[in-house]
Design brief:
Layout (H helix, E strand, L loop, with lengths): L4 H13 L17 H6 L2 H15 L7 H8 L43 H6 L7 H4 L15
Helix pairs in contact: 3-4
């Protein structure tokens, strides 16, 4: 018998009920991982278990993000914007461009639907997309060479 939606929800609720902290959303595009804690917590095995459940029951969508949310929900800490300047992919609903957060920035993260390579190719770039353009491997074939 193929599981119904209530069964799918049961899997997720079982995980959430046992959480010591409130579940929260986070983006897996940029993560810093304490490898000692990762190994100690057996997180690879936990993620693989959710992937096996997904393969059998198809309980979620959105690719690789849901297993991370199920395994780590509530057990994550945010990064300061200077370490992960996220959201440069714009507003997913209206496609609006976003500006940098104030202060120093270490990593530019085009999270969201608006990827700079797509906007530049479509001749509708956001101002910050020009920061990415010098690293476009297709526009700079010399970056591929070994010389």
């Amino acid at each position: 018998m193929h599981p119904s939606k209530p069964l799918n929800l049961f899997f997720i609720l079982t995980v959430m009920i046992r959480r010591p902290r409130n579940p929260c959303y986070f983006n897996t595009g940029v993560m810093v991982i304490d490898l000692w804690k990762w190994r100690e917590g057996k997180y690879t095995e936990k993620l693989e278990n959710w992937m096996r459940i997904q393969k059998r029951y198809r309980i979620y969508e959105l690719g690789s993000l849901p297993p991370f949310l199920l395994v780590f929900a509530g057990d994550v800490e945010g990064m300061e914007h200077r370490w992960n300047q996220h959201g440069l992919g714009g507003d997913n609903l209206e496609g609006l461009c976003r500006a940098l957060h104030p202060g120093p920035v270490s990593l530019l993260h085009w999270s969201g639907k608006g990827k700079p390579w797509l906007r530049i190719d479509s001749k509708r770039p956001c101002p910050l997309d020009s920061l990415w353009a010098p690293y476009d491997l297709f526009r700079h074939p010399s970056l591929f060479s070994n010389s």
